[in-house]
Amino acid sequence: xxxxxxxxxxxxxxxxxTDDPEVLLADFKDxxxxxxxxxxxxxxxxxxxxxSISSQLFKQLEAYGxxxxxxxxxxxxxxxxxxxxxxxxxxxxxxxAAGSLCxxxxxxxxxxxxxxxxxxxxxxxxxxxxxxxxxxxxxxxxATAEQVDAIxxxxxQINEFLNNFWQRCGITLVDFKLEFGLDSQQQLLLADExxxxxxxxxxxxxxxxxxxxxxxxxxxxxxxxxxxxYQEVLQRVLKAVETTIS
Length: 246
Known about the structure:
Number of helices: 6
Strand content: 25-35%
Structural class: alpha+beta
Shape: globular
Number of strands: 14
Distance between the termini: 32 Å
Order of helices and strands: EEEEEHEEEEHEEHHEEEHH
């Protein structure tokens, strides 16, 4: 496989075309952003760590029956993926109250939700990625009713799997973001990445509200030891996968 030209550069990844129009190469960056890119920085080794974590989780999800854009990982910070048209939606699944949910509702941080909450946000930086009602989503024609139903069903399936997986890692899955895309056959695929950048992860054994954080909140909230937290997540993921295989 040879890399051709840069197709798109986002906050966390660069996408390149390849000799196969159905295949793209995603290059994971060490750049870190928060608050809609108002805060910027660099997390050493983040690209390799997030690519490795995402690759392992995509493979686990494929084995579970979830179709993803993942093909393989030719280098530690690179992932070959199926070309998809990303739906302009950020799908957030919440198991425990944190972040904007607490800010907007007054729920105390750490409140365990009676059932997972699936939310849709408009993937639009200029508008600040606003929370959408279904009617607004349909008004903007961001997805069809059938696609929204399918995404909701998939999101809950993925949440069930990831909850169990992260528990085996000694990590609590608080909430996380997913993105979906359509391939050339209009098949809905899980895309983007699953990593400490897109998940809120707490060390299950740690009770201190700051020390338990193992995700990008360490960068957002200037908690320090960001690289160490990401590396610890990777090591726990690899150990859990190894245990599953053996």
